[in-house]
Specification:
Helix content of chain A: over 70%
Shape of chain C: globular
Radius of gyration of chain C: 18 Å
Number of domains of chain C: 1
Number of strands of chain A: 2
CATH topology of chain A: ABC transporter involved in vitamin B12 uptake, BtuC
Order of helices and strands of chain C: HHHHHEEEHHHHEHHH
Number of strands of chain C: 4
Distance between the termini of chain C: 43 Å
Distance between the termini of chain A: 52 Å
Shape of chain A: globular
Structural class of chain A: mainly alpha
CATH architecture of chain A: Orthogonal Bundle
CATH class of chain A: Mainly Alpha
Strand content of chain C: under 5%
Oligomer: heterotrimer
Largest sheet of chain A: 2 strands, antiparallel
Structural class of chain C: mainly alpha
Largest sheet of chain C: 2 strands, antiparallel
Strand content of chain A: under 5%
Strand order of the largest sheet of chain C: 1-4
Radius of gyration of chain A: 19 Å
Chains: A mainly alpha (about 290), B alpha/beta (about 250), C mainly alpha (about 290)
Largest interface: A-C, 48 and 48 residues
Number of helices of chain A: 12
């Protein structure tokens, strides 16, 4: 196949990753919590969507809305009942990370017990496809592009122009500022978790339609998101998207040259490469570890 | 042995500052909060790197050194927020500080445990001496987190002494220490200076400054606004106005 | 009786795994999710050295230890200069890449088919081919590794690791090269894992990549979290608990298809509860704060 086909595939997959990365990065940049449960919420929303769309036969958009709602709610509840009690007791980020890992294990395995460990597909039959020059794209891929464009542009506008954006940036740079801005830190957290979960579950639904679901999709998705955030540059919300697209493209190029077996490995090889040579990410700025610790 | 002199620039906390310390003398750094004093210590110890300027130690340019290297050269630091090793005993806290321990090489500790044990015994004795020097005898086996604030401060001083540094940067050594102990700490500082160490102290307690300082730097807004003997600097009405006007 | 010996062997292998991870997580405060990968590398390395290069059990084991220690440098050096989260992610990456290599490099590892007919170990001329003799071997190995790891932990080296765990910056200010200590601790931890891997290969006589996945890394970590870290009893008692517990569960009639999932749910729930109510684990000293 033409390299162009692979590049397009990679780019579009990258866009899907970007949604996940934006969601993960939103929570990570503002709360500094490395949230494994993010992957569980991703898996949950995929399965909720599956239940309403395939099992109960609801209209696709309705099922999507339910799934998005469930994931937003779950994200908030996780923060409310797992992370916040820990933080209020003076817990560190490490303890939050470990709890989120435990939570991920529980949630994903409950889903596995309920639905089975095997892969399920959502779309029956072959996808409608379109030709763009010499490249073939499926309908789902086009939807991914459209959805991403819509969401990302709103995201950028909201971040730069609105009050919410200001608040989020303040939370990232100096949470103590929030109080002086007259903003309730806990409400913003709820927003952050809700929004972060929702962004990723959009990707979950789209990718579920594209390639199907199994209980482990969440971990891969979350890790891709986390790597994308780091590669893009920690602390820069938009950076996650750049990182994700880069990953998507790289992954696709590797698959073109070798085979799909190495898809997962390339994500992490890229991470190691960046850690060695450019830890601040594509658009980040260098800060010494000692400075960060002070 | 020479002056340690430094000049930095740029970092907005420290604005084109040049100053130096001398062995055998106690230098006090005073000034309002946020004036850049702690940042200064961070720069000297390598935890921060200046945007502009250089730092010298005995003619050697240590500007870009990693903190552990600066420490190995002999730059010691007492932190304002203490930073003792909480879940280690007081004894262990001090033991960590000794330099050149053969047992710190994992291979040696496996191959020659007898040598390591010998060194340990020696170090434990010295550590106990240091602990009683600061008044913590009897607390050796207590976990650092179980000690009071003042005791932890004393522990951090004992730890610093164990590190055998030539240059001692003390960030508020008397804050939180009971008045009885303060006298002991000040005596210690004096003794250290007399022994040839270079001592720089950040202090907010004026009586302490008068008591031990040979020289005073007044630092405000990232710059040195005054330098001299305590009476001159602290007696200057302008300085008093700035400082008291907080 | 043979069931009992089997359990002893498994406990022995896991004691080595958890105690080596304890050096890293409990003493140095570094969270690693790639222990399963090192376990696998140790198993495959010693297997390949024995079967393809014709080396004996002990030489293969020692070389496998060296290999894992060297491989650990590929992630420790890039990531330990940076913040803690990077290391976790890098370790996850190592785990993923290792699995991909074990699974896909069929020429070397037979991929998903695994390597079978691994020879029984021959130690100092004695062939270890009965259950009893293997139990003796694994127990000796477990005791030996425990002793070595304990000596290292109780030494000044271990003391610096604990100091790093408590306050990295203060440790730096005392002149310790923190990065070198962390890299060394990681390498030591990896090397001992290879011992467990060699034992596993010699016992099961079959290795395949699915024994060394992320779930395995998480399981070993769970033992440390639940049992407790930073001291000697924590991992020991934790291992006993976590190995014996699932065996006890066998007597409840849980359908096979979900047995693994149910076990994981219990581990996950325990982790969340422990973090919330008893961060030092059941028997540990180091409280994840």
């Amino acid at each position: 196949m033409l390299i162009a086909q692979f590049l397009v595939n990679g780019f579009i997959t990258g866009l899907a990753y970007a949604l996940i990365a934006l969601g993960f990065g939103l929570v990570y940049n503002t709360t500094r919590i490395f949230n494994f449960a993010h992957g569980a919420v991703y898996t949950l929303s995929a399965y909720v969507f599956y239940t309403f769309y395939v099992v109960m036969g609801w209209h696709i958009l309705l099922a999507a809305i339910v799934a998005l709602g469930v994931s937003a709610l779950t994200g908030v509840l996780i923060d409310e009942f797992v992370f916040r009690p820990l933080i209020k007791r003076g817990g560190s980020l490490l303890i939050a990370l470990l709890s989120s890992l435990g939570l991920y294990i529980v949630m994903v395995n409950v889903i596995a017990v309920a639905f089975g460990n095997e892969n399920k597909t959502l779309s029956i039959g072959v996808q409608p496809t379109y030709m763009l020059g010499a490249v073939i794209v499926t309908r789902i891929q086009l939807i991914i592009v459209a959805v991403f464009a819509l969401i990302f542009s709103s995201f950028l506008v909201a971040l730069r122009k609105t009050n919410i954006g200001k608040v989020l940036r303040a939370m990232r740079d100096d949470p103590d500022l929030l109080a002086s801005m007259g903003v309730n830190q806990w409400s913003v957290r709820r927003l952050v978790f809700a929004l972060g979960s929702t962004l990723s579950s959009v990707a979950a639904i789209l990718l579920a339609l594209d390639v199907g679901i199994d209980p482990n999709v969440g971990m891969t998705a979350m890790l891709n998101g986390a790597v994308a955030v780091i590669i893009g540059g920690i602390g820069i919300f938009e950076g996650a998207a750049i990182g994700a697209v880069t990953l998507g493209l790289l992954q696709s190029l590797v698959i073109w040259q070798t085979s799909a077996r190495w898809a997962d490995a390339i994500i992490f090889l890229t991470l190691i490469f960046f850690l060695l040579f450019r830890p601040q990410g594509i658009i980040g700025q260098r800060r010494r570890i000692e400075e960060v610790g002070l | 042995m020479e002056n340690v002199s430094k000049s930095f620039g740029g970092v907005c906390a420290v604005d084109n500052m040049s100053l130096g310390f001398e062995e055998g003398k106690v230098f006090c750094l005073v000034g309002p909060n946020g004036a850049g004093k702690t940042t200064l210590f961070n720069l000297i110890t390598g935890f921060l790197h200046p945007d502009r300027g250089h730092i010298y130690y005995h003619d050697r340019n240590i500007t870009a050194l990693a903190p552990w290297r600066a420490a190995r050269l002999g730059v010691g630091r007492l932190f304002q927020d203490i930073r003792v090793f909480k879940r280690l005993t007081a004894l262990d806290n001090v033991l960590t500080a000794f330099k050149n321990q053969p047992g710190e090489n994992a291979l040696i500790s496996l191959i020659n445990p007898w040598r390591v044990a010998r060194e340990e015994r020696r170090m434990v004795e010295r550590a106990r001496d240091l602990l009683s020097l600061v008044g913590l005898e009897g607390n050796e086996e207590s976990l650092a987190e179980d000690l009071s604030y003042g005791q932890q401060k004393l522990l951090s001083i004992a730890r610093l002494l164990a590190a055998d540094a030539d240059v001692l940067l003390l960030d508020e050594p008397t804050a939180g220490v009971t008045p009885v102990r303060i006298k002991a700490v000040l005596d210690l500082i004096r003794k250290l200076a007399d022994a040839g160490k270079t001592v720089a102290v950040i202090e907010h307690n004026m009586s302490v400054v008068y008591e031990i300082a040979d020289w005073v730097y007044f630092i405000d807004g990232g710059q040195v606004t005054s330098f001299g003997i305590p009476n001159d600097v602290l007696g200057d009405p302008n300085i008093r106005a700035t400082y008291m006007g907080l | 009786m043979s069931y009992f010996l089997h359990i002893l062997i498994v406990i022995g292998i896991y004691l080595i795994l958890t105690q080596s991870l304890n050096l890293l997580v409990g003493y140095t405060g570094l969270l690693s999710l790639c222990h399963g990968a090192f376990y696998g590398i140790g198993a495959y390395a010693s297997t390949l050295l024995m079967m393809k290069a014709g080396l004996g059990f002990l030489p293969s084991l020692l070389l496998a230890m060296l290999a894992t220690a060297l491989l650990s440098l590929t992630i420790s050096i890039p990531s330990l200069r940076l913040r803690g989260d990077y290391f976790v992610l890098a370790s996850l990456g190592f785990q993923t890449i290792t699995f991909a290599i074990l699974y896909n490099w069929i020429g070397l590892t037979e991929g998903p088919y695994g390597i079978s007919n691994i020879p029984r170990p021959t130690v100092f001329g004695i062939q270890v081919n009965t259950l009893v003799s293997f139990t003796v071997l694994s127990s000796i190995a477990a005791c030996g590794c425990s002793l070595l790891l304990h000596t290292i932990s109780a030494s000044p080296f271990g003391r610096v690791l604990k100091a790093i765990r408590e306050d990295e910056l203060a440790t730096m200010s005392l002149g310790k090269n923190v990065i070198r200590f962390k890299v060394t601790a990681f390498a030591i931890s990896a090397a001992f894992t290879a011992v467990a891997g060699s034992l596993f290969a010699g016992y099961m006589r079959f290795v395949d990549p699915t024994s060394f996945m992320l779930s395995e890394s998480v399981f070993i970590l769970s033992i440390i979290i639940i049992g407790g870290a930073g001291n000697f009893p924590g991992p020991l008692l934790g291992t006993l608990l976590m190995i014996i517990l699932p065996e006890a569960l066998r007597f409840l009639a849980i359908p096979d298809s979900v047995a693994a999932n149910i076990r994981q749910i219990i581990y996950g729930a325990l982790i969340v509860l422990i973090m919330r109510y008893r961060p030092s684990g059941l028997f540990g000293e180091y409280r994840f704060k």
